[in-house]
Design goal:
Elements (H helix, E strand, L loop, with lengths): L3 E3 L4 H7 L8 E2 L5 H5 L26 E2 L78 E5 L2 E2 H8 L3 H10 L10 E2 L1 H10 L3 E5 L7 E3 L3 E6 L5 H9 L16 E6 L5 E6 L7 H10 L2 E7 L6 H12 L4 E6 L8 H10 L12 E4 L8 H15 L2 E3 L5 E10 L3 E10 L2 E2 L3 E4 L2 E10 L4 E2 L1 E2 L4 E7 L8 E5 L2 H29 L10 E9 L2 H12 L6 E10 L4 H10 L2 E5 L6 H9 L4 E4 L2 H15 L3 E18 L10 E11 L1 E2 L3 E6 L2 E13 L2 E2 L2 E2 L4 E6 L10 E10 L2 E4 L5 E4 L1
Parallel strand pairs: 4-7, 9-11, 9-12, 12-13, 13-14, 25-26, 25-27, 27-28
Antiparallel strand pairs: 1-2, 1-3, 5-6, 8-15, 10-11, 16-17, 16-24, 17-23, 18-22, 19-20, 19-24, 20-21, 20-23, 29-30, 29-37, 30-36, 31-35, 32-33, 32-37, 33-34, 33-36, 38-39
Length: 734
């Protein structure tokens, strides 16, 4: 007896017909299939391969797998079913059509072998493109965190993003003992740990629990060059500093304490107005409480005036406008007020909060009103500072003295600076040996808003550095070493980023390098002169400042200049001794010394222009008009073919035999070529001047017509130009 096992997929169709057939149902005998389905049968079974069968309904093909072979006596008249091989997962794919003659395995037909065409092409030579370096979204070197006195290790770990165990190991290495991660740390230790993990810090000081007293305001005088800033300060403190300045302009950042007639004292900072001293003005705005914007009544708002306004706005410092030179006949204060208002400065007369005072430094008029305006602004700001605890100070200038060593001019912002304390100034450290006021008198200590000169530093700090008081010399050495290491890492990182960002250019430019060594009297002036010289860079000359220093020109500067072929520029320094001058002359080294920034920039600009290779240009050296045409025929083979000679008169400039000639007809270029012959009165000549007649031949050209114009072209090297604007800014135009 044969049986049939149905596939589960056949249940849906079969259940709709009978309601009895389910997946896995077993039909015991094929003879009972018609009886089970009913009469007439809806499923017909036909004999197929001895290997297996398929069960199919009228509405769809439903596969089934036979567990055994069906009986061979089954009727053959059921031709509507499709057959497939047994034990196959996809019976519909291998189903045999009813029109096929035979079933079972068939060997494939042998076809003619066709060789495939080889499509291998030679490799294409493509230029090598180096892969771009993937950079991190933000490096730790660019991250800055705030630290304060008494912060815990946990707080420091959260701000730096480092693991707690890493910070604890660093704290132990710097010599600090901690029992738990909640122990408070000093700001010095927190800064050392932050620098070790490569994070910048910003110190936050609190006046909570400290003794706070009112302090005098710090006022910075800013404005355009030659608008009378120093003269106004001289009128306030009854001195004559402006009369002794080189060139009549301020080139240093000065600090003074002026006692007012009312009994109050004000600390003034005098900033230079030249365009080269922009960094000095920025430092003055960063440390000040009030900015006095000096504008000349006869000159109006100038570029450095607008720059000073921007510095004050960036530092969020209130402005008091002083319109100077009101005693001059061409003075127009109302025009100045309109210009300031158009630049966004809201004056009190126009509904704003910026006070305006009309003064004259020459006649000393309006000075009392200026004092009243400054004290009123200071009273509104309610300026106070703590008097106890370690001092916070800011370096406004630094210089190197031959007898006293490095000197730093600083303004105390809070606390009290005491002689004998260990301090860290930027990356330098030292023990305060002496404190002097701006008049040169010795002092034991300095209070808030007091400008002083500090002696005893081991090295020369940079203008703009903060002064930090530490407890011990060991801590000062450690903090200074860490800052130097951090500055060096940042410098190398900046250089590497510049090298990566600079993509090689396909065009080869003929650019000359000009190495320069800069020496000046103070640190701030060194920076200003360096920035001014770098602004003279051009596509033809690259100004490379290889070394800067404070102090006179020494033998080491001569050796360095000889090694790299540099020029030495001295600003406000003494003339070098005869021995150094002779050594520089033997080594063929140029030394340029100046005391006025105008003269320095002009001199260096001329040197750069002379060293520039220049750019080749084609210029018209002369013009001639064709008056007649002469033709030479019947020449021998040795002398060449027939030629045409243009008889011309020189109307402009001159003609030379070695130049290139251009033939013009009705303003359009007909031919351009070299001059083959130039004669005057049957004599070969090299040059023909304006107003003379000549005969000329253009090589490979015989298309002359009377009335044509011939131009003489010359190749010239055009040098760049040194351009200086009214505000003192200088540049090189190519």
């Amino acid at each position: 007896m044969w049986g049939l096992l149905l596939h589960p997929s056949a249940s849906a169709a079969s259940s709709g017909k009978t309601g009895l057939l389910s997946p896995g149902s077993f039909i015991p005998a094929i003879t009972t299939l018609d009886e089970w389905l009913g009469d007439p049968p809806e499923a017909r079974i036909s004999q197929g391969s001895p290997l297996g069968y398929t069960c199919c309904f009228e509405d769809a093909v439903k596969p089934a797998y036979a567990s055994t072979q069906l009986s061979s006596g089954t009727e053959r008249n059921r031709q509507d079913l499709f057959l497939s091989r047994l034990f196959h997962s996809s019976p519909s794919c291998l189903a045999r059509r009813r029109d096929e003659d035979s079933f079972g395995l068939r060997t494939p037909k042998r076809e003619k072998y066709v060789k495939k065409e080889s499509r291998i092409q030679p490799p294409v030579e493509t230029p090598y493109v180096p892969p771009r370096i993937k950079r991190e979204a933000k490096s730790l070197l660019d991250k800055t965190i705030d630290i304060f006195e008494g912060m815990t290790v946990v707080e420091l770990a959260k701000r730096t993003g480092e693991k707690l165990s890493t910070l604890q190991d660093i704290i132990v290495n710097v010599g600090e003992k901690i029992e738990s991660e909640f122990d408070p740390l000093s700001m010095d230790i927190a800064e050392l740990v932050a620098m070790e993990v490569g994070v910048n810090v910003r110190r936050l000081h609190s006046n909570e629990g400290a003794e706070v007293h009112p302090r005098p305001p710090v006022v910075t005088v800013m404005g355009h060059v030659d608008h009378g800033k120093t003269s106004l300060l001289d009128a306030l403190r009854q001195t004559s500093v402006a009369a002794h300045e080189a060139g009549g302009i301020t080139q240093h950042l000065g600090a003074f304490v002026v006692g007012m007639p009312s009994g109050a004292s004000i600390t003034f900072l005098d900033t230079p107005g030249h365009a080269a001293f922009s960094a000095m003005r920025a430092r003055g705005a960063a440390v000040t409480d009030i900015v006095v914007l000096v504008v000349a009544a006869d000159d109006g708002v100038m570029p450095q005036t607008k720059e000073a306004m921007n510095h004050a706005r960036t530092a969020d410092v209130p402005i008091v406008v002083a319109i100077n030179k009101c005693d001059k006949p061409a003075a127009d204060p109302e025009r100045v007020k309109l210009q300031l208002a158009s630049d966004g400065l809201l004056l009190e007369e126009m509904g704003g909060d910026v006070q305006v005072v009309e003064v004259s430094a020459t006649t000393k008029t309006g000075l009392d009103k200026l004092e009243e305006a400054l004290l009123l602004q200071a009273e509104i700001m309610d300026l106070k500072a703590r008097v106890d605890g370690p001092a916070q100070a800011y370096v406004v200038e630094a210089r190197l003295d031959k007898g006293r060593g490095p000197l730093a001019t600083a303004i105390v912002k809070a606390g009290t600076l005491v002689c004998g304390q260990h301090v860290v100034v930027g990356s330098e450290w030292g023990r305060i040996r002496a404190i002097r006021d701006m008049a040169g008198k010795m002092a034991d200590q300095a209070g808030a808003a007091m400008p002083v000169v500090i002696e005893g530093l081991k090295g020369l700090p940079r203008a703009g550095d903060d002064i930090v008081v530490v407890e011990t010399e060991e801590r000062a050495r450690m903090l200074s070493k860490g800052r130097k290491s951090k500055y060096e890492k940042d410098r190398l990182k900046k250089i590497s980023e510049e090298l990566e960002s600079s993509e090689p250019s396909d065009e080869v430019t003929n650019r000359v390098e000009m190495p320069i060594i800069v020496k000046a009297d103070v640190q701030g002036t060194v920076q200003a002169v360096t920035d001014a010289l770098k602004s003279l860079n051009s596509p033809q000359v690259f100004v490379n400042v290889i070394h800067v220093g404070v102090g006179p020109i020494s033998q080491s500067d001569i050796d360095l200049a000889q090694a790299c072929g540099a020029c030495i520029v001295g600003f406000n320094v003494k003339s070098p001794p005869s021995a150094i001058g002779q050594a520089a002359a033997r080594a063929n080294i140029e030394i340029r010394t100046h005391r006025v920034i105008y003269h320095l920039l002009e001199d260096m600009g001329k040197m750069i222009v002379n060293k520039a290779p220049g750019t080749a240009e084609t210029q018209v050296a002369g013009e001639a008009q064709v008056l007649n045409i002469f033709e030479l025929k019947g020449r021998s083979k040795s002398k060449g073919d027939d030629i045409k000679i243009a008889g011309c008169r020189i109307t402009e400039g001159l003609f030379t035999r070695s130049s290139t000639l251009r033939l013009l007809r009705s303003g359009e270029v007909v031919f351009e070529g070299s001059c083959a012959s130039l004669k005057r009165e049957k004599q070969d000549v090299e040059t023909v001047m304006k107003g003379n007649e000549c005969g000329l031949v253009i090589r490979n050209c015989d298309d002359f017509q009377i009335g044509d114009v011939i131009q003489c072209l010359q190749q010239v090297m055009r040098k760049p130009r040194f351009v200086s604007s009214e505000n003192g800014a200088a540049r090189i135009e190519c």
